[in-house]
Amino acid sequence: MTDDRTPSASSATAPDGFPTGSGGHDPEMLRQRALDALLTARARTTALTDSVDEAELTAQHSPLMSPLVWDLAHIGNQEEQWLLRAVGGREALRPEIDGLYDAFEHPRAARPSLPLLAPAEARTYASDVRGRALDILEAAPLHEGGRPLERAGFAFGMIAQHEQQHDETMLITHQLRSGPVALTAPAPPEPTDATSLPAEVLVPGGPFTMGTSAEPWALDNERPAHQREVAAFHLATAPVTCGAYRRFMADGGYTDPRWWAPEGWDMVREHGLDAPLFWHRDGGQWLRRRFGVTEPVPDDEPVLHVSWYEADAYARWAGRRLPTEAEWEKAARHDPATGRSLRYPWGDTDPTPEQANLGQRHLRPARAGAYAAGRAPSGAGQLIGDVWEWTSSDFLPYPGFVAFPYREYSEVFFGPGHKVLRGGSFAVDQVACRGTFRNWDLPVRRQIFSGFRTARDA
């Protein structure tokens, strides 16, 4: 996931020509956007950490995740390093804790043994940093000719995205924790025309513009915009549902090595896998645990908590395949009527609650076929929000990639070891989710809010 990828600001590189792409945006509009993004992120962080007691904050609920209190102080420490020190030129507030909250220095399983800030101290520290950061934002020049970190408010947008990524990580920790229910949310809206939707859409072949050079807060791996040629293909209109995945399970999907990559088959046998994470069988019924609630698995909801290996095996069993990253982005962004690549499937405007399931507004994916207003020109829906979608592609740089503002955000992860996920989930905020946003993870990961859709050649 994108939460443990922010090292010390001392490792920053800032090439003067980095295309932050403010595109002539009004600096005051960008300043307000940055303020709104920072405040929204902090409100969510507060809700996630105030919903449990001190013992729950300091406990490690899974060796895969940090204690919640580590995330809280790490958010404050990164904000101090990047906004107070790197942008504002302020003297360090707590330099002695930089090492404690360096995600590259300490693996998650080891973090509970560190001398971490206690919850009250972590809250005070993060609040103190935030007050000073907002003062810096108020005075920072955000014009096109400014320093790369300040240009178009990039550093402020980067920190808002970083906090929201940790909020998603903390939500994963909430899903992994045992104990009483701490979070609640209303159900997402029901689809209005799901029964009339085709199972798949044809995406015509031809070139399209992939990536961006114009999105002000796009991260380095989304850049630069470049032309890609994609052959015609068919793409599922919606993500694979729990009901469809259960048919794979019932047909012996977890017991037949024909469908599995060798490493995936090894994973199945080593861990005795027979279903997505958090599912269990009770008599003749499949149940799942969702944020402390045990409930029947809903057949028409996108399947969640599956690894890349599971997604790939299902696609093979179904006689289909996972889409490539370029295919996914063309289906999500390309508008054949204009030849343009859109910011989002529905156009260039920021997401609304009628277009996508984002921001922890609901604590589950919407049913397949929901959000008609968010469908792409291709006809595919739910490409933004609901579930992160595994693609078949390795995480690799685009032609002309430039690391900014540090190599450890993207560059050190490039290669065949990580697979790309696209589209975001219900746990992602809009500031950290757009048509060009690239997530990546190890193909074994299951605790993340991941699902998939399938494709086939035309």
Short description:
The protein has 458 residues and is α+β, with helices and mostly antiparallel strands.
Explain this structure to me?
With 458 residues, the chain is of the alpha+beta class. It folds into two domains: 9-176, dinb family like domain (Four Helix Bundle (Hemerythrin (Met), subunit A)); 185-458, paralog of FGE (formylglycine-generating enzyme) (Alpha-Beta Complex). It is 29% helix and 13% strand. The chain contains nine helices and 14 strands. The chain has helices at residues 27-50, 54-58, 68-87, 119-139, 154-176, 242-250, 262-271, 308-317, 325-333; strands at 200-203, 206-210, 226-230, 233-236, 279-282, 285-290, 293-296, 334-335, 340-341, 388-395, 415-422, 439-441, 450-451, 455-457. The strands form five sheets. The chain has a four-stranded mixed sheet with strand order 12-11-10-13. A three-stranded antiparallel sheet has the order 1-4-14, with helices on one face. α1 (27-50) packs parallel to α5 (154-176) and α3 (68-87) packs antiparallel against α5 (154-176). The longest helix has 24 residues, at 27-50. It is globular and about 60 Å long. The relative contact order is 0.16. Mean pLDDT is 94; it is low at 14-23.
